[in-house]
Amino acid sequence: MSLSRRYFLESLTAGAACSWLNVRHASAAQPADGLETFVPTRAITQGPLNHWFGYYDKREFDPTGTRILSNEIAFEGRSPTIDDKIGVGYVDTSDNDRWVPLGTSKAWGWQQGCMLQWVGDKGERVLWNDREDDTFVCRLHDLSSGQTRTIPRPVYTISNDGQTALSADFRRIDNLRPGYGYDGLADPYVDQRAPSQSGIWRIDLATGKEDLIVSLADVAKIPWPDGSRHEEAWHYFNHLLINPSGTRFVALHRYRPEFDPKTLQFQGNFVTRMISGNLDGSDLYVLDPSGRTSHFIWKNDEELTMWTKPAGQVEAFYTFRDKTREVIPVGHEKMPTNGHNTYLNVGNEDWILNDTYPRGNTPRQTVYLYHVPSDRRFDLGHFPSPVAYRGEWRCDTHPRSSEDGMQVAIDSPHNGGRQVYLLGVKELVEKKA
Q1: Running DSSP on this structure, what letter comes out for residue 168?
Q2: Which residues is 303 bridged to in the sheet?
Q3: How far apart are CA 258 and CA 190, in angstroms?
Q4: DSSP code, position 218
Q5: In 10 A of CB 256, how many CB atoms?
Q6: Distance between CA 299 and CA 425 in Å, rounded?
Q7: Please, are residues 422 and 46 in contact by the beta-carbon 8 Å criterion?
Q8: Averages of pLDDT over each 10 residues, the chain, 433 residues
């Protein structure tokens, strides 16, 4: 994707990170910028570099909850180019928030970073995507040995046990959904609407062996509920996620009705449906055929909670049971807008961690917890989002929780540049448990 197509703003200057904020700002003491926090909140990264983690469905915390992954970069406010490199590392909160560098990446975007995440549940390995010559790859770093191994295909999501990964074509994503793919490499199938050589790959992280398990040609042939086909549209996969036990995956199958492969220009919105399948690509099932699937998370091995609009119902959060037509509304009054939802790893999927997009005259992003059994919502904070952070290089909070569910990390640009903030929710969660 050319820089001229996507460039808009000048670089922003990062500000210094703030220290611990008050547990709650009284209305009389509320800062002019609209910042309010209701739980202990502090920045764990500092300028002049900008820091952020990226997407909400990746493992950011190690098992101890003290090593918190992050990306860092010197500029903001424009699309990445093939020459832009980010640093990857972690903050050690047990050692005065010391920054520990692990490597660099030339395969990244503002929304999802470079897919940086802990591998497995032992806190021994970290992976991220990178570019090597004319190939996107994955770096697998072992903290004990200090050695970094290269997997010859970039990773989108991994199983909880750290053995299996799934990949999609980031070159194609970059053309059809700027900001979610990687710049710098041309899609060899750019002139094909649903290529049989592109789709979803399964990767063995121990050996690097890869297999194309579902092609775009395969999924484009699956009819929609009304019997219609859209093989004349331009298809791609986005947002892959494996269930907790590593037996099933889901992916968003998306298409754009119009796309010019010569100019890389498209018109109109994309259409989305969710498919599920076994990790070998078998037993595919169209779980949400609405065309409106958005953010989602596995609740357990059989259920997913997502923002969508089932036939005849309002757009909201619902829980779907895999391979069935069972759909249950979730928190419609307390979670009325789309957000980045996950479940805290406490209790019986009782707590949903979520956020909102900036809206209205005072654009703020709210991070909150929703307690499902009591139907109660607890706002953790309202974080101002400057108008410069819009479009492709926006800074969504993308809340992520620690393995024990007692800490939440967010990305926020409210203090002069994007930084990572840590929110303590232990008192709230334990009080309501």
Answers
A1: -
A2: 321
A3: 13
A4: H
A5: 19
A6: 20
A7: no
A8: 28 28 31 81 97 97 98 95 96 98 97 97 96 96 97 98 98 96 95 98 97 97 89 96 98 97 94 98 98 97 98 97 98 98 91 93 91 97 94 95 97 95 96 72
Q: Name every residue whose Cβ is closer than 8 Å to that of residue 405 and which is 6 or more positions away in sequence.
A: 344, 345, 346, 351, 425, 429
Kindly report the pTM of this predicted structure. 0.91
Q: Select from 291, 293, 305 the least CA-distant residue to 243.
A: 305
Element (H, E) at 69: strand 67-73
Instruction: Report helix, strand or coil for 29.
Output: helix
The two most distant CA atoms of the chain are separated, in Å, by 62
Neighbour count for residue 139 (Cβ, 10 Å): 24
- CATH fold for domain 3-432: Methylamine Dehydrogenase; Chain H (2.130.10)
Q: Using CA atoms, how far apart are residues 9 and 170, in angstroms rounded to an integer? A: 24
Rama region for 283: left / alpha / beta (φ>0; ψ in -120 to 50; rest) = left
